Amino acid sequence: MDATWFRALLGKRVTITLVCGAYSGCLRHVDTATKAVVLDQVEDLENKRKLPGVKIFFGYEIKNLEILEALPTPSVIKLTNDNSDEKGKLEDAVAGKAFGDEHSQGTCNDMECKDLEYIVIDQFHQKFGPAIFHIKQQNVIGVAVKGINVCRFGKLCWMQISTSDRIYLFDIFLLGAGAFKNGLKMVLEDLDILKVTHDCRLLSDCLYHQYRVDLTNIFDTQVADILQFSTETGGLLPSCVCTLEECLIHYLDLSPTKVQLLQHSAAVLKVNPKVWSCRPLPPHLMQSAGLEVKFLLSLRVALMDKLMMDFTTQVDNYLNMYRNMPSISLGCAEASSLELPYELKELTIIQRLRKEEALKNYKTDENGLLVRPYPRFAHKSMNERKIINIDDIPELESTKTLREDVTEIQNEEIPLLEPGPSYGEDICPPLE
């Protein structure tokens, strides 16, 4: 039978006669190269028992294939003509409603994602091994999943993994637990590979209880966003977490049209909660799955830069603390080097000012948490709204008294450190 006819039969109930038995099931996938056939809801006709999961039957084993359901009329199923951009794509009116295709007109064009390249891994030979080998060589990868109510009781259908230059879509629905036994478990538990995710809670629950995979070395961008928000608001917390779409727009300045495809897939999921288990999966949903992990690595870098901003600022203060101080005012720096510097004590004042500013710009809920406006990216960050000038920071009374005491000590020891005539005014002798 021609491979085109096989694709036209996807989703239909068929009976396969092998050399050693006969089976019936729902046709889910056909490998045009090896003629391997994948069936779901499989029943062993000879022993009259149902088999769990999906089963793969290789072409050399199949003696006969019988269609149990009537073929649809040409008005329901047809192949697009050769001039179409999606040549050979199956157009099924009934399946289209299940996939949510009634919402997808013009989706790929509007999202500007036609250039998104990804590699689909739906079988163990040919592409699975090289994919695992490439991922194993990475230091940082992006990880996301798709499925039906993904948790310990749900069904995992897809796992998306991104590297610096590739996107892999692992079809867990077809590969089954063997995908983890043959390499994914090793990658996800590798302490030397940082896994970037957005909300790893249900992902971790599903992998641990269904596949005995213990996720390690995780950078969660949703947690990082909460920490950054708390830093911007002087220690206050928001009333809700941020979606991946909002984080991409807020931290990476991506246009809303480029991440609209993620929102579209969420709308399709509401129409059909089992859409990720359908085969073949529509191209716009494949694009959405790839897009979900495409920018995770860049999002991590942007969040790290934000989280480290206060740290780098204080390091700059440390660099300039003594270097730019006139030698006559330096005194015995070694004696006071263990005291908390005034510049670090200013952090408490900065946090108080940020908190006061946040309470002015945000509403609070009944729990005292800040209510983030939606969409979040329409609200500028605290740093963008107000820049705190050093001159605006009030003096600490206790610190001011301490500095005066240090000045008195310095005046008594000036003859010991006062530069001689041969030194310039800005030259400070080395400390012993």
Question: What would a concise description of this structure say?
Answer:
The chain is an alpha+beta fold.
Overview of this protein structure:
With 432 residues, this protein is of the alpha+beta class. Helix 7 (201-211) links the parallel strand 13 (194-197) and strand 14 (218-220). It has helices at 3-8, 93-99, 107-111, 128-136, 172-175, 178-188, 201-211, 221-232, 244-252, 256-271, 283-294, 296-307, 309-323, 327-330, 342-361, 382-385, 397-412, 414-417; strands spanning 13-18, 21-30, 37-44, 49-50, 55-57, 62-67, 77-79, 90-92, 119-121, 140-148, 155-162, 167-171, 194-197, 218-220, 363-364, 370-371. The strands form 4 sheets. Strands 1, 2, 3, 4, 5 and 6 form a 6-stranded antiparallel beta sheet that branches. It has a 6-stranded mixed beta sheet with strand order 9-12-11-10-13-14, sandwiched between helices. Residues 73-112, 377-393 and 396-432 have low confidence and may be disordered. Helix content is 41%, strand content 18%.
Helices and strands, with pairings:
Blueprint: H1 3-8, E1 13-18, E2 21-30, E3 37-44, E4 49-50, E5 55-57, E6 62-67, E7 77-79, E8 90-92, H2 93-99, H3 107-111, E9 119-121, H4 128-136, E10 140-148, E11 155-162, E12 167-171, H5 172-175, H6 178-188, E13 194-197, H7 201-211, E14 218-220, H8 221-232, H9 244-252, H10 256-271, H11 283-294, H12 296-307, H13 309-323, H14 327-330, H15 342-361, E15 363-364, E16 370-371, H16 382-385, H17 397-412, H18 414-417
Parallel strand pairs: 9-12, 10-13, 13-14
Antiparallel strand pairs: 1-2, 1-6, 2-3, 3-4, 3-5, 7-8, 10-11, 11-12, 15-16
Helix pairs in contact: 8-12, 9-12, 10-11
